[in-house]
Design a protein that fits this description.
By secondary structure, the chain is an alpha+beta fold. The protein has three helices and four strands, in the order βββααβα. The longest helix has 12 residues, at 59-70.
Length: 102
């Protein structure tokens, strides 16, 4: 049976938590319909895994984004130069978000 319940979708912004080298990353997911937000603290390993999932394992993009975060910058996860990538709750849950919050 097909469910008629709409699936939530989220955009994602990452930011470094510490200025003493990249140790933790705050991930802020914004629901595209309600504009509500959910946060998760990710390890560098979880962040790399999320970026690998998003960009098909393209190491140059992953390293560029990690360097950007390590420099203390905020990073919007984009599909191209202007459009956000869109994630479903199941994708976010596998990278450290609490499924109950999504």
């Amino acid at each position: 049976m097909v469910s008629n319940v709409p699936l939530d979708h989220y955009t994602l912004v990452l930011e470094a938590v510490s200025s003493n080298g990249l140790q933790q990353v705050r991930a802020i997911a914004t629901n595209t319909a309600t504009k509500s937000t959910v946060e998760a603290q990710l390890s560098v390993g979880q962040t790399r895994a999320l970026l690998a999932h998003t960009y098909g394992g393209e190491q140059s993009i992953i390293e560029n984004h990690i360097e950007h975060l390590d420099a203390g910058h905020t990073l919007a996860i984009l599909a191209n130069s202007k459009d956000f990538c869109v994630f479903n709750p199941q994708e976010l849950a596998q990278f450290g978000f609490n499924p109950k919050d999504l």
